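Justification of resources, computational component.

The compute hours requested in this renewal are based largely on the per-chain cost of generating structure records like the one below. Each record pairs the submitted sequence with a full structure-token output. That output is archived, and it is also reused by downstream analysis tasks.
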Amino acid sequence: MGKIKSILFLGFPNFGEQDLLAPWELLRSLAWTLGQQGEEITVTLGSFEGGTLTTHMGAQVVSETKVSPSDRYDLVYVPGGIGAGAASQNETVVDFVRAHHEEGRWVVGNCAGLSVLHRAGILGGSEVTAPATVARRLAQHGENVASPRRAWKIDTNRKIMTVGGAGTVHPSTIALVWHLFGESEARDLAATWDTLPLHGESLFALDGPELNDDEAVKAKLQDNWENTFLPE
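The structure output for this chain reads:
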């Protein structure tokens, strides 16, 4: 595949607002900037359900397009949220993500969206990061979860990016732009959105900064939430 020209943010019922809308907004901003330079990319928020989706905090978000299983995009971004566990058990969603990966297209999983990538069977062979809530169960299921966890990890060979969660979604999107669209575009976006003054040069790397877990807090999160975010 050549340059990234089409990006789908895959919505589903009860997705996490920050997980989808923050990177969607950043990449829409990038698309506008590139458009001023005569380079067109499309950044779309779509879902298999179509129409209005209710997020896990109750906001109403309208899908820009109703996705068909045969549709293809250069990059598919899978968010997290309470609904990610159910999405990971949805054969249409899982097959769609698997097909994109098998065809050499980019797949990004943020937070509990890693559950969808795991069920699609595309993580094997990559060292990944994950939110604390599913990191233990993913490792138990044989996935290679970085320890300590990282804010993000980009596997350039397998075209997979994994992101730790809502707290890391903003800088990880800049890192994705850096890798796919170049440092100049990433620095411009990071400066415009105040990501660069906060995170500095750590933005421009395939692996994000290490996450400093409190093991007791992490274990409590896992006990409370892993059955929701990655159901057995």
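The mean pLDDT is 96. The chain has nine helices and eleven strands.
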